[in-house]
Amino acid sequence: MSVEFPEDLQEAIRFHGHVCPGLIMGYRAARAARDYLQVERPEDEELVAIAESDGCGVDAVQSLLSCTLGKGNLIYRDQGKQAYTLICRKKGRAVRVAARPGLFDRTPEQETAFQKVMGGTATEEETVVFRAFQRERLEWMLEAKTEDLFTLTEVSPEVPGKARIFKSVTCEYCGEPVMEPRARIRDGKVACLDCCENYSRGW
Ligand SMILES: [Zn+2]
Ligand SMILES: [Zn+2]
After folding, report:
1. pLDDT tens across 109-135, in order?
2. Ligand nearest to the CA of 20
3. What's the 184 CA to ligand 2 centre distance in angstroms?
């Protein structure tokens, strides 16, 4: 290992389960957003993060910023972009950190190796070559200048509503409790989404 991982990154790696370029990008994004807004690791729901993809990087955001799905201060918007918005409620400020294009480009050979490794058909040698490439890339990402990785934009701190706690009702079909706003009525009885027929005309 030529690069020493800082403690907060090691924590993110433990949380995520492995180290990969995606995690490093999330790590760098979280740090960039935190530095920009000048906030420390948040108490409770002071910080809210919006993630625009559900790849590896979002785990670093959860680990570093303590913005988690369970606490309701991590919001997922399926935009398919490596971008995160961090909102600081206390300061009434927000920053969007978006990955620059080209950071994940691979040569055709690297792409072939990547596909094989992902598909589980790579030889040992191809796996070793690919791992070395990944390692080189993530070390570069770890040490690159923030402006080489991201564009940072101050955005309006549109703070989504705080996490709410709802009453539960019992589904009369399967007997499981379900939060009221998710419950439906089926044949005059309370039903959970699993027990409902889905009627939709595509709207
Ligand atoms: Zn990963
Ligand atoms: Zn049910």
Report:
1. 888 888 999 899 989 988 898 889 889
2. 1
3. 10
> CA-based diameter of the chain, in Å?
65
Instruction: Please give the structure tokens belonging to residue 151.
Output: 């564009």
Nearest to 110 by CA among 80, 142, 140, 137: 137
Q: Tokens 């040490």, residue? A: 143
**CA-based nearest residue to 84, from 43, 54, 104, 40:** 54
Proximal ligand: closest to the CA of 25: 1
CA of 68 to the centre of ligand 1 (A): 17
Q: What is the pLDDT of residues 21-61, one digit of tens each?
A: 999 999 999 999 999 999 876 665 689 999 999 999 999 99
Give the ligand at the shortest distance from the Cα of 18.
Answer: 1
Identify which ligand lies nearest to the alpha carbon of 134: 1
Give the Å distance between the CA of 84 and the centre of ligand 1. 17
Task: Give per-residue burial for 29-67: e unless 16+ CB within 10 Å, then b.
Answer: bbbbbbebbebeebeeebbbbbbbbeebbbbbbbbbbbb
The first and second tokens of residue 175, run together, are 């007997």
Dump the DSSP string for 117-165.
Answer: HHHT---HHHHHHHHHHHHHHHHHHHHS-HHHHEEEEEE---PPPPP--
Q: What is the set of domains in the chain, with CATH numbers?
A: 7-155 (3.30.1330.130), 165-203 (3.30.60)
